[in-house]
């Protein structure tokens, strides 16, 4: 890793013999300050220097859904879940299904086609509560549809195939564009999409409720406010920080770029203060066109970057996963851009999911080294120690995964007093199935162990204003 302005070079295949004195945390000879760890893939008796996972997880999934038209494609991200409606969305070929434990599967959009397929799906923010699905297609079609509507409300034709879609996790107050009641402050959703050429589009969506549509005969609007041309190849991954202040993009050009949302939007919109929104008649919005330099940080990997995950309990911490020529999980500090640690996993990283109750992160793997039996692994932070792993038989690969929480029994709908319990992850598998695996099955919160929540760096922690009050996530 070498610092070049705001560019950090990281990663690569782990050396056969790790170039680090683990007991003394000596830096690698190439000068990187990031710590390097290696994942255990041995199936024999563990040694003292390379222990096997200490926590036992069920090897078999507790539920498997047949997915006959699931596309075996690293670049597709066709799973999404909304806690508002408690539905799992699955893209199979060109058809989108929703599934729930009580009602089973139901096709809600698309038709069988051999020349076009779904590439990415995403539910709108929990805060917005409207369960809008953004659906990207290989023919460049972007479709917006609520699970409560019979037909799609919007369809936008992009100039190139859509590869990724991702909603901002918070809503934003903006003046309404409703021609019958213009300028009134309304909650809007923000949507970013990436295409096959590496361009990122930033959309704003105003989505009135069904009764409002009936009253005004106006379905809402979607409009483009920014276009970011920075990546030189296909966008593979998009992810938001929990507070919506940042989003990150991963590309097939081996770059991961971090963006400050306010810098992309120019004007700062306070999502909780209605007094700051003037009820003026909205005018047409000029599209911002951004290029190199728009990013806050740029991290160079040695393979495509699909898996990106911001830590939900430690602001300023983000993890990325590299493809087949990288085979590593990297951890970065979003404020300084510093590389904090790297875990060499000997596998293509297809998804990263942070625990919300433990100081741990789960990873799923695609193509692996020949003797690598695991397709799911859990690591502690900041020790970067492998604490659990799940092997899959044969040459099956995990294509993509998302978190799937468990709800208290007899809960019919989500409300502000009831929250889902962390439980499992849902994995799209190369054998054309969707597997439900228990990962964090115990209730309650537990300490993660260790100190230094940003990589053991007291300097970084003082910059972030972090108080060391133990390791329990509160």
From TrEMBL:
Domain of life according to the entry: Eukaryota
Alphabetic keyword roster: Repeat, WD repeat
Xref: SMART domains: WD40 (SM00320)
Gene Ontology biological-process entries: anaphase-promoting complex-dependent catabolic process; positive regulation of anaphase-promoting complex-dependent catabolic process
WD repeat positions: 228-263
Coiled coil, from the record: none
SUPFAM superfamilies, A to Z: WD40 repeat-like
Entry GO MF terms: anaphase-promoting complex binding; ubiquitin ligase activator activity
PROSITE patterns: WD_REPEATS_2
A cellular component annotation (GO) from this entry: anaphase-promoting complex
Protein name (database record): Uncharacterized protein
Organism annotation: Hypocrea virens (strain Gv29-8 / FGSC 10586) (Gliocladium virens)
């Amino acid at each position: 890793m070498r610092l070049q302005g705001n560019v950090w070079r990281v990663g690569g295949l782990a050396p056969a013999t790790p170039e680090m004195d683990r007991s003394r945390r000596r830096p690698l000879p190439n000068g990187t300050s990031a710590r390097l760890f290696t994942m255990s893939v041995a199936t024999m008796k563990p040694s003292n220097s390379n222990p096997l996972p200490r926590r036992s997880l069920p090897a078999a999934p507790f539920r498997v859904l047949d997915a006959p038209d699931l596309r075996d494609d690293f670049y597709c991200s066709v799973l999404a879940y909304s806690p508002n409606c408690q539905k799992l969305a699955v893209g199979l070929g060109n058809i989108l299904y929703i599934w729930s434990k009580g009602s089973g599967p139901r096709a809600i959009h698309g038709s069988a086609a051999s020349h076009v397929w779904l590439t990415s799906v995403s539910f709108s923010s929990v805060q917005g509560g409207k369960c809008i699905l953004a659906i990207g297609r290989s023919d460049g079609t972007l479709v917006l549809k609520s699970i409560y509507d019979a037909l799609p409300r919007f369809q936008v034709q992009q100039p190139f195939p859509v590869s990724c879609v991702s909603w901002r996790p918070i809503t934003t107050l903006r003046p309404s564009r409703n021609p019958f009641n213009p300028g009134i402050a309304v909650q809007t959703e923000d949507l970013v999409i990436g295409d096959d050429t590496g361009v990122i589009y930033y959309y704003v969506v105003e989505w009135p409720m069904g009764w409002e549509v009936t009253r005004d005969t106006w379905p809402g609007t979607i409009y483009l406010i920014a276009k970011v041309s920075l990546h030189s190849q296909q966008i593979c991954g998009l992810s938001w920080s929990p507070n919506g202040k940042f989003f990150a993009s991963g590309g097939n050009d081996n770059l991961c770029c971090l963006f400050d949302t306010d810098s992309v939007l120019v004007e700062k919109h306070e999502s909780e203060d209605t007094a700051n929104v003037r009820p003026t008649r909205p005018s047409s919005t000029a599209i911002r066109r951004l290029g190199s330099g728009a990013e806050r940080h740029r991290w160079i990997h040695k393979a495509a970057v699909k898996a990106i995950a911001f830590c939900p309990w430690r602001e300023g911490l983000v993890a990325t996963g590299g493809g087949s020529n990288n085979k590593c999980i990297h951890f970065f500090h979003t404020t300084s851009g510093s590389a904090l640690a790297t875990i060499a996993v000997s596998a293509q990283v297809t998804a990263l999911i942070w625990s919300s109750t433990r100081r741990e992160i789960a990873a799923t793997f695609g193509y692996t080294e020949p003797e690598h039996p695991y397709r799911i692994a859990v690591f502690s932070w900041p020790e970067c120690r492998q604490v659990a792993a799940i092997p899959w038989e044969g040459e099956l690969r995990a294509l993509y995964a998302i978190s799937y929480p468990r709800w208290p029994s007899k809960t019919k709908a989500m409300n502000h007093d009831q929250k889902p319990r962390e439980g499992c992850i849902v994995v799209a598998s190369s054998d054309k199935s969707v597997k439900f695996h228990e990962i964090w099955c115990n209730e309650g919160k537990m300490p993660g162990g260790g100190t230094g929540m940003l990589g053991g760096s007291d300097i970084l922690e003082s910059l972030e204003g972090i108080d060391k009050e133990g390791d329990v996530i509160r």
